[in-house]
User: Fold these one by one.
Assistant:
Number 1:
Amino acid sequence: MQQLDNIQNQIRDIQMLPIQVQDHNLEASLIAQYEENMTKLTEFYRQRAKKQWATRGDQNTSFFHHAVLKRRRKNHIFSINDSQSNPVHDPDDITKEFVAYFQSIFRSSTSNNERPYLSTSIYREARDYTNSIPDK
């Protein structure tokens, strides 16, 4: 946003000069930079908002920014219950609870880290032609 403001101020300063002293090449270059940055910013907010109206080309209005902030607040986790059903509100503690939960789910149940449900030996039938070259 700071970069956009700087570019916009430079364009305004050039346009305030008398027309004979204006650097039109610099002005065109700054306008192209400004439009490129606005396109990137719009795409960023379009991805963040995930709203149908964003695909119709709305500009970065305050309504657009409020929709992004509302979505961010909606997706924020304020509290969870731990494994003993106690409420957890601190963000660091919430993070620890998530890590502990998923570690307990994905922890191996066997001591030698083998895959308990996958067979290690492959049964091959005597007439298995899967990897053979067909006759002509």
Number 2:
Amino acid sequence: WLGGGSRHSGGKQGQGGGNEQLKFTTSDSCDRIKDEFQLLQARYHSLKLECDKLASEKSEMQRHYMHKQAEIVKRLNGICAQVLPYLPQGHQQQVLGAIERAEQVTAPELNSIIRQRLQLSQLWALALPLTPLAGTGLLLLSALGSQAHLSKEDKNGPTTRSERSKT
């Protein structure tokens, strides 16, 4: 406070000056608080817009993901339908039963299965140099093979004849 020295002299002018200084400081502080509030409000508004934009992008990505999943399901059903007649009768019944069970799997169950498969494949990758291949499950091997095939396809580009002819 600049008016503090005048207060010690005991004059009225010094005390009045101190009050004016106090009023100025309070008014100035209120203006600064108001400015900061407006800045925070503008920041909040921009963050809200960004959040809305990200939510919209997330929804679009989920729609795209679901579309891709539907395409994958359609292709897998086609492959199963093409291969099924070539299997022995006993295996055909097993495959049909597996397809029926697969059609009844819910999204949370599927996520749980995927997590388990990833954990198994990671354990398998760690144990591979130590143990022989005998005794492993066909499903685990097919999962590992499909992962390897997908990574190979990503590196090498399209693998079907129709995809090669397009490039």
Number 3:
Amino acid sequence: TRLKVILKRKSRLKVCCALAHSKPICDQTEFLHPNGTCVACPVCKPGDQLSGDCGFGDGGEHVCIPCDDGTFSSDTDVAPCRRCTQCSLLNRHLVTACSPTRDGLCGQCLPGSAPLGSTNCIYTCCVVFSRMNDLLHLKYPVPSLIM
């Protein structure tokens, strides 16, 4: 609450006491309840996510729903499901498939590839060329193959 001052025309000052309700500022995991208070967003179990964004005052109507295919959530929280790691894009064998509650697990490099480096503890593999001629054709393509 705060004191509200109203200025009238012709330099008359009228001061009145009024309650001016300011909207509360909700944090990143709260929505504004119709009663004017900030309330915690629903927390979803692993394998679920909220049906929409919730936080900073918005989203009180959302409920927990299962993760979409190809996504997972391993924590109990308000975060959306994350996309599953695609081992084939990393040139790695799939050891354990992704499930709604855990990410997939990648294994060794696929045949014909070798470890390249590390990105967030997920190693990528690059294709190894068996002959120098293969590398030259990639660097200087044969004109008939250029479209």
